[in-house]
Amino acid sequence: xxxxxxxxxxxxxxxxxxxxxxxxxxxxxxxxxxxxxxxxxxxxxxxxxxxxxxxxxxxxxxxxxxxxxxxxxxxxxxxxxxxxxxxxxxxxxxxxxxxxxxxxxxxxxxxxxxxxxxxxxxxxxxxxxxxxxxxxxxxxxxxxxxxxxxxxxxxxxxxxxxxxxxxxxxxxxxxxxxxxxxxxxxxxxxxxxxxxxxxxxxxxxxxxxxxxxxxxxxxxxxxxxxxxxxxxxxxxxxxxxxxxxxxxxxxxxxxxxxxxxxxxxxxxxxxxxxxxxxxxxxxxxxxxxxxxxxxxxxxxxxxxxxxxxxxxxxxxxxxxxxxxxxxxxxxxxxxxxxxxxxxxxxxxxxxxxxxxxxxxxxxxxxxxxxxxxxxxxxxxxxxxxxxxxxxxxxxxxxxxxxxxxxxxxx
Length: 410
Ligand SMILES: O=C(O)CCC(=O)C(=O)O
Ligand SMILES: [Fe+2]
Hints:
CATH superfamily of the largest domain: Cupin
InterPro entries: JmjC_dom (IPR003347), JMJD6_ArgDemeth/LysHydrox (IPR050910)
Number of domains: 2
Bound molecules: 2-oxoglutaric acid, fe (ii) ion
Radius of gyration: 22 Å
Structural class: alpha+beta
Strand content: 15-25%
Order of helices and strands: HEHEHEEEEHEHHEEEEEEEEHHHHHHH
Strand order of the largest sheet: 1-2-13-10-15-8-7-5-6
Number of strands: 15
CATH class of the largest domain: Mainly Beta
Pfam families: JmjC
GO molecular function: 2-oxoglutarate-dependent dioxygenase activity; sequence-specific DNA binding
CATH architecture of the largest domain: Sandwich
Number of helices: 13
């Protein structure tokens, strides 16, 4: 059985409206991108690009997950090819039920969602499987991710995810990373019917992301950090859906064709709508050129946490007084605990990730920035960190930073 399309005439109309007036792409699309161009024209200046479908044409998923379309155009999804993963418990957003600044979220076995889509059930129409850790699941089951994809060469210097290996990961390799934040896995798979979407957002930690369309096409709206003036509501808050705004908020609109990979710069807001039934794979990631902006994003997140719990600071001061610095140590630790829950990591995770990637560079030298440049970015963030009071009060983190300094001969 395959996907039976329950798209209503209204939805078809919506799709054709979305496809109207797609402007020319203001960013390059490469058949092949050498590392030097990637670094100098995109990573460092933080500029988007796309890779053509040539990049993904050799991926297993490009063959297995696609059923040829009846007409010229994008493929249909081969849902039967996803059955081997039916037992994975996957996060699902119901895009028909917005909730606060997200959608209603549930977790279900993938097989149940595939059933709904194959039956053409009404209930399945707005469901979007997102943030499914397919690669981690495959590796956890002792197989290699080559059964799905291959990370493009220039994107292998990835400091946030386990280093790319096509074949099954040796147990020792999985364990080596297990004490650091970089074990956290940001290799996601997304699948959903036409018009399911991801609301306007910026990616975790201020990371970059790349996203490959295995099946179907997506429309992206991209907003550079200095282009956010038209995407705020009357309270000054960022909107949920830029399609509701005049001129769609003035973002750069891009139609990403099947097979193409898009690169989203660090700190850029974006929104994504699936035009066809889509299966896509993305990585959130960063590398040494992004360290200063990741550092900055963590500082901003920390400030927000501090403001949210300023009453706790008063309570600590009341209890311990200000004669010694005991209150400040407790406050700094309290803030880190909440930061880890709120932002996903704190300074411990940040510096352990840096150390880990210096000790075990994830990509070959010719696919990474020159060592002197890498070290200069690391030095820059060490210098910034040393002006913070966490440098004084978080002793364990200080030892990690000192280990990094030794590595860099500082
Ligand atoms: O494809 C989607 O729905 C969202 C992808 C996304 O936000 C990303 O790759 O950063
Ligand atoms: Fe994103």
